């Protein structure tokens, strides 16, 4: 309904701003990311999202369109409300969130205050395909984080192998064959341990 607001910045705090648009002051909730991008000038423009609930109409503002689109994606996930989405955008850079979702990095998403393991998994499950399509990301694990590698290491630890020793062996296997499945990594590791 309200796509953007352009006007004079009247009040500014890390969580919200008031923008005067021709005599009407709009209170707009913002993330810390947007707060860090606000210009020092009086005239500003924020891309907005209007959340309509039974008991309130709340405006959320973003310095960049991309952040607004990510916010809309996040609130589409069951269990993630506008407040949680804003916390996520305040805790991590939007690019970092997108990369974490795209690479299936549950740990990073879960590190955000108020996000539990189930919610983090749901965010990744619901948004991974959309994020990969929208942001044209390759479906690759981030550097240093390989789910198969982590699962194989965990399995070897359960089997009673020394973590440091198992890590070295797995590292070597993954270097030689980066796309190895968990089973392949474990089988290879068992031969070398």
Automatic annotation (TrEMBL):
<dbReference type="InterPro" id="IPR000085">
    <property type="entry name" value="RuvA"/>
</dbReference>
<feature type="domain" description="Helix-hairpin-helix DNA-binding motif class 1">
    <location>
        <begin position="72"/>
        <end position="91"/>
    </location>
</feature>
<dbReference type="InterPro" id="IPR036267">
    <property type="entry name" value="RuvA_C_sf"/>
</dbReference>
<dbReference type="GO" id="GO:0016787">
    <property type="term" value="F:hydrolase activity"/>
</dbReference>
<dbReference type="InterPro" id="IPR012340">
    <property type="entry name" value="NA-bd_OB-fold"/>
</dbReference>
<comment type="similarity">
    <text>Belongs to the RuvA family.</text>
</comment>
<dbReference type="InterPro" id="IPR011114">
    <property type="entry name" value="RuvA_C"/>
</dbReference>
<keyword id="KW-0963">Cytoplasm</keyword>
<dbReference type="Pfam" id="PF01330">
    <property type="entry name" value="RuvA_N"/>
</dbReference>
<feature type="domain" description="Helix-hairpin-helix DNA-binding motif class 1">
    <location>
        <begin position="153"/>
        <end position="172"/>
    </location>
</feature>
<dbReference type="InterPro" id="IPR010994">
    <property type="entry name" value="RuvA_2-like"/>
</dbReference>
<comment type="function">
    <text>The RuvA-RuvB-RuvC complex processes Holliday junction (HJ) DNA during genetic recombination and DNA repair, while the RuvA-RuvB complex plays an important role in the rescue of blocked DNA replication forks via replication fork reversal (RFR). RuvA specifically binds to HJ cruciform DNA, conferring on it an open structure. The RuvB hexamer acts as an ATP-dependent pump, pulling dsDNA into and through the RuvAB complex. HJ branch migration allows RuvC to scan DNA until it finds its consensus sequence, where it cleaves and resolves the cruciform DNA.</text>
</comment>
<keyword id="KW-0378">Hydrolase</keyword>
<keyword id="KW-0227">DNA damage</keyword>
<keyword id="KW-0238">DNA-binding</keyword>
<dbReference type="Pfam" id="PF07499">
    <property type="entry name" value="RuvA_C"/>
</dbReference>
<protein>
    <recommendedName>
        <fullName>Holliday junction branch migration complex subunit RuvA</fullName>
    </recommendedName>
</protein>
<dbReference type="Pfam" id="PF14520">
    <property type="entry name" value="HHH_5"/>
</dbReference>
<comment type="subunit">
    <text>Homotetramer. Forms an RuvA(8)-RuvB(12)-Holliday junction (HJ) complex. HJ DNA is sandwiched between 2 RuvA tetramers; dsDNA enters through RuvA and exits via RuvB. An RuvB hexamer assembles on each DNA strand where it exits the tetramer. Each RuvB hexamer is contacted by two RuvA subunits (via domain III) on 2 adjacent RuvB subunits; this complex drives branch migration. In the full resolvosome a probable DNA-RuvA(4)-RuvB(12)-RuvC(2) complex forms which resolves the HJ.</text>
</comment>
<keyword id="KW-0234">DNA repair</keyword>
<dbReference type="InterPro" id="IPR013849">
    <property type="entry name" value="DNA_helicase_Holl-junc_RuvA_I"/>
</dbReference>
<feature type="region of interest" description="Domain III">
    <location>
        <begin position="145"/>
        <end position="193"/>
    </location>
</feature>
<dbReference type="GO" id="GO:0003678">
    <property type="term" value="F:DNA helicase activity"/>
</dbReference>
<dbReference type="InterPro" id="IPR003583">
    <property type="entry name" value="Hlx-hairpin-Hlx_DNA-bd_motif"/>
</dbReference>
<keyword id="KW-0233">DNA recombination</keyword>
<feature type="domain" description="Helix-hairpin-helix DNA-binding motif class 1">
    <location>
        <begin position="107"/>
        <end position="126"/>
    </location>
</feature>
């Amino acid at each position: 309904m309200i796509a953007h607001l352009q006007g004079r910045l009247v009040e500014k705090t890390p969580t919200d701003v008031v923008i005067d648009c021709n005599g009407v002051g709009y209170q707009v909730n913002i993330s810390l990311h947007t707060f860090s991008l606000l210009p020092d000038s009086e005239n500003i423009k924020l891309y907005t999202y209007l959340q309509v609930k039974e008991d309130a109409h709340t405006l959320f503002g973003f310095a960049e369109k991309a952040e607004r689109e990510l916010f809309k994606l996040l609130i589409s996930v069951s269990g993630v409300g506008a407040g949680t989405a804003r916390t996520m955008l305040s805790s991590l850079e939007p690019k970092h969130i997108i990369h974490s979702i795209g690479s299936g990095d549950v740990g990073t998403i879960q590190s955000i205050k108020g996000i539990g393991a189930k919610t983090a998994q749901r965010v990744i499950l619901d948004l991974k395909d959309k994020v990969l399509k929208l942001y044209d990301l390759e479906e690759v694990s981030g550097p240093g984080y390989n789910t198969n590698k982590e699962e194989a290491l965990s399995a070897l630890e359960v089997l009673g192998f020394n973590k440091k020793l198992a890590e070295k062996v797995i590292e070597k296997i993954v270097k030689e064959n980066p796309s190895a499945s968990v089973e392949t990594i474990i089988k290879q590791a068992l031969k070398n341990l």
